[in-house]
Amino acid sequence: MNAQKDPSHPCAWRVTDDDGVVHNVFCSAGANTAADAIAALSPASQPNVVIPADIIAERNKRLSIGFDHDFGDSRGVHRIGTTESDMRGWSEVTSIAQAAILAGDPDAEITIATDTGTVAVTATEWQSVLTAAHAFRQPIWQASFTLAAMDPIPADYADDSYWS
Asked: Is the pLDDT at 84 greater than 80, yes or no?
């Protein structure tokens, strides 16, 4: 890191960090010298402040872990994947299932890949998977909204107690 006096402000420093990002550090942050300005940006001097992006990252992590769905027959329980890639597949399966139902063919079979293996579902059964997904995903979304509205956001925001 290096610091240069900011010529446009009587009490400011322009600090370039190791990634080339330029930060303005003011005397009010205790930066009276170049060394002070650099020290003000060091990780040890930064408070551990949780921001909404931290909540979003935790929400995305939790949304992507998947859930178990019991088909209630010989197919048994399958782990339903919910990564971003899985969700793109869900979109396609949902469109196919809806089209089949609207065309009067609710028993149309669609082969899907779960984290357990491939399995055939009917268009109507896919709606049951979507209902189970709602029960799994909606509480995670709600918890993220609740946490993001807190001021301050708790430092232990990733603790399961906030998410269940």
From this structure: yes
